[in-house]
Amino acid sequence: MIRKTIKTNIVIAGAGLVGLCFALSIKNRGWSIQILETHLPEIMTQSHTDSRPISLSFGSVRILKALGVWTELENVACPILSVHVSEQGRFGSTHFSATQQNVPALGYVVPFAKLQSALYHHAAAQSDITITSIHSIEKIKGDLHGALIETNSTEIHADLFVAADGTHSSCRDLLGISFTEKDHGDVARIYQLHLSEDHTHTAYERFTQYGVLAILPLHEKNKAQLVWTITPRIAKKIINWNEKEILEFLRNTFEGRLSIIAVKKIAQ
Predict the structure, then answer these.
(1) Which of 149, 175, 201 corresponds to the end of one domain?
(2) Measured in whole angstroms, how far is the alpha carbon of residue 217 from the centre of its chain?
(3) pTM, entire model
C-alpha cells in the first residue's frame, strides 16, 4: 500500500483532554502540530449525547484559563465552595472551604462533553494545529532525529511524538513500553440525586461499611452526582436493591446533611 508522506514538527496521538490541552499549550511558537484521533466523529458529536460531569481542581481551571478555554465553560460550571469528609459511625470529620483557602472555589464541576467540545473547537481554530481522523496507528519508530509514525494511510515524519491515547494506549504497546496494572475489582456506580434543597455547592466524601460515597454538586442547584465505589463482595450484597432501598440507604448514610428525594442510576 502506498502511503502519503507528511513532515511536521510535532505529532500527538489522541484528541482527548490531555492531547488537546498539550497542543494548545504549545501553539503559536512556530511549530506545526498534527493531532491524530481514531474516534474523531464521536468527539465532534459527543456534546449532544454525553452529559457526564467531571470535577476539575482549582489548578486545572487555571490551566484552562491560560489556554483561553475557560470562558466557554463558565456558564455551565458549578463551583465547589466546600468539602465535607467523614466516616459513618465515627465522631471526627474534615471540612474545608474556599473561603478558608482564600480562593474563589476549591474546584468546579463541568459537563465532560462541554469541556471536550470547547478544547476541540479551540484547537481546531488554530492555524498551526491540524486534527486528523485516522483508522489506526500501525507503526512508531523513534531515533535521535525524531519519529516516524505510520497510520493506515499516511507516513508522518516528526521531530517529536507525544502519545496521549489514554489508559489502554496502543502507542504504548507499539513502542514496547512496559507497565504494571493492578485491578482490585472495585466497581464504581454513578447515580444522579434530586434534592429538595439547595446543595450549597458542597461536595461530600463518606466512608461506610458499604463502600465509599462521593457526591458532587451540579449546575442545577437541586441536583448532585453520586459516585459509589464498592468491592465485589459488597456488590453481591446489594445487587437486588431497588431505587427505594438505595434512597433509604443514602438518607440514613448522610444523616440529614443532604435532602435527597430521588435517586437514579446512570452508569456503572
Answers:
(1) 175
(2) 16
(3) 0.88
